[in-house]
Amino acid sequence: MTSFEFTITEHLINELRKKHQAILMADQGMIVNTATDTNLPKQNVQRRKLTRSKSIIQQIFHSKEGDDPKLKNVRQTEILVDLKDSVLQICRYFISCDEKMEMNISTKADYSPESHAHDIDNFLAGRREGHKRARALLDFARQDEDELGFRKNDLITIICEKDEH
């Protein structure tokens, strides 16, 4: 009989953890770099810097804020990509926290003017349904049996705002 104590090492566990993390993140459409240990919770965005070659006089007297339409277009595109990634991360978070939300959340963006006409109505309908949530900023250990305890960044669904005390 062989013993498992020599076959299972810390290195093997880390490699398998990275492999399975990559599979999970690829299923969710996230970019994964398995060479690093810090894939979560933040992802770093590499930004390109486009500059045109300038003469010495232009470099001295020209402002850093370029009026180049190409640079402006790149900046606007990067802002939209960042916005879309942020919205997708929020959607994924709420889907993972509450399975009922998976049917209600649409991850497809609609930039048409017609969709914006219903924004206020959709917001007010959501407020009336009572799906108020809060994120815990700090750990709170309960001291009595009837108190709620939670950890930092836990998502708390507010059912009733009446205080009995």
From TrEMBL:
It comes from the Eukaryota. The keyword Transferase does not apply. Keywords: SH3 domain. Residues 129-165 form the SH3 domain. Pfam families: SH3_1. The keyword ATP-binding does not apply. This is Small G protein signaling modulator 3 (inferred by orthology to a human protein). It comes from Nippostrongylus brasiliensis. The lineage of its organism: Eukaryota, Metazoa, Ecdysozoa, Nematoda, Chromadorea.
